[in-house]
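Input record, target 12 of the design panel.
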């Protein structure tokens, strides 16, 4: 970037741009936003700019709008999450009640039994791939079996757990 162009205007008007951001609600984040503004302006592929100071103020204003929208979206997302999950209240714990804990433990026991019934290899393949996140090819190499064997065992495990889920849902 030409030091006599946009960079020079930015550096000459840095205090005013910082004041602009602060006066538009950036508060303590004004310095960070100014840094972000500089990075965006520096990396932008633009031609000659007729009004560089106006361009910088417009870019700063756009950053503030983006920040405002982002904050609004975060607040809405948090509110929706609280509503969807039952939310937190001051007089109630977020921990599941004892009945829910017992049901979950019972369900986990059924899942473990269903996987164990498929055999040690199938259970290991399922655990390594689905729980540990190991790619199928790596699991096959690790256990000394073919990739198609891993795929087949994963289908068996998935089918068994799907059937288990159906029986649990029926109760």
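The sequence produced for target 12 reads:
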């Amino acid at each position: 970037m030409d030091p006599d162009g946009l960079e020079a205007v930015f550096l000459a008007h840095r205090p005013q741009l910082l004041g602009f951001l602060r006066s538009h609600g950036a508060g303590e984040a004004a310095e960070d936003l100014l840094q972000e503004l500089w990075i965006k302006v520096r990396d932008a592929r633009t031609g000659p700019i007729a009004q560089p100071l106006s361009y910088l103020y417009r870019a700063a204003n756009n950053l503030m709008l983006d920040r405002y929208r982002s904050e609004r979206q975060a607040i809405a997302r948090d509110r929706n999450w609280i509503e969807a999950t039952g939310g937190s209240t001051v007089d109630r714990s977020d921990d599941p009640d004892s009945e829910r804990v017992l049901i979950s433990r019972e369900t986990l026991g059924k899942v473990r039994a269903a996987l164990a019934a498929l055999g040690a290899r199938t259970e290991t393949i399922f655990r390594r791939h689905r729980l540990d996140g190991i790619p199928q090819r790596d699991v096959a190499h690790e256990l000394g079996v073919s990739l198609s064997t891993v795929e087949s065992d994963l289908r068996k495990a998935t089918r068994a757990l799907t059937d288990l889920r159906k029986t649990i849902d029926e109760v």
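DSSP finds eight helices and no strands in the chain.
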